[in-house]
Amino acid sequence: MSKKELGVLLDSGRKHWKKEEILALLDLIKEKGFNTFQWHFSDFLGFRVKLDSFPEIASDDHLSKEEMREIITYAEKLGIDIVPEFDTPGHLTPMLAKYPTWGVKQIDENGEVKHSDTALDITNPEAKQAVFTILEEILTLFPNSTHFHLGADEFIWFSKVQEFPDLISSSQALVGEVASGLESYVAYTNELIDFMNERGKTPRVWNDGFFRSDVVSKVELSKNVEICYWTKWDEAMATLDTWLEKGYKMLNYNDNYLYYVLGEHSSYTYPTAEKVREGWEEYKFSGEQMVPDAHKHQLVGTYLAIWSDKPEAKTPQEILADISPVMEVMREKVEG
């Protein structure tokens, strides 16, 4: 994708969308002059495709591979690029429900060790290999997609990394006693980045876990990745300027304006055309951070994100009606 992206992210992991409903979203994307669809089809509440390699992790409500191919073909017919997203090493509840010992070990407030039900044990070779196997199969469904989103957000509560003994020990094995504990997480992400690069795909990750000021990793994130900057809610998260000065290409998912979170969960409010028109512009990122003129060439896309935190809050039809005017204003702002 050489053109600047204007896209919509759909979290169909937490809320199942039928094939016809996703096709209707694609029609809206085309109608409003957008060009990209990010398909986030796995999350805490569901894994929405039945894979040959791990069919048991699919939710009861899911799409068949044939249905997914029909959606992909339709998007291509409309000239819409698809960015698939399989989010790891966090947000893996469907997998860990079937393989509970693959959850990273955490020491709780009582000093007891338990396996996480959301976060992968990235020090477990079998668990890691499962991720690569799944990624390989997903890639076969999206042969023409040039980009792939690896997630890498909200793995653990990063400031509490000391509660994860295996992350500490594996990080120390990488860099010695100076390890903070996040080195193994960054190294794992770098492995995924290399995996995608080797297959001719441009990988992406979310911003919140890297170059933090509170827990500093001695292993740095690869430069061969694009950054989807969604939030600065935590002061310890790296600033926009940090990423820009390191030379990363950036995508704007400003959660203050462009996050449509079902049920208005986590204190989010639904975006409106009026709010976007009055407060947002293309180079304004979360936390009112602006891209300096000298770095504007590093912005490669802007997205409206539909997150299904409370899946029952709205129907797909209501969601499409809500986002339609917001998309119009976004396009106006981006096109100037």
From TrEMBL:
Pfam families: Glyco_hydro_20 (PF00728). One of its GO terms (molecular function) is beta-N-acetylhexosaminidase activity. Residues 7-310 form the Glycoside hydrolase family 20 catalytic domain. The keyword Endoplasmic reticulum does not apply. The keyword Plastid does not apply. PANTHER family: BETA-N-ACETYLHEXOSAMINIDASE (PTHR43678:SF1), PUTATIVE (AFU_ORTHOLOGUE AFUA_2G00640)-RELATED (PTHR43678). Belongs to the glycosyl hydrolase 20 family. This is Hexosaminidase. It comes from Pilibacter termitis.
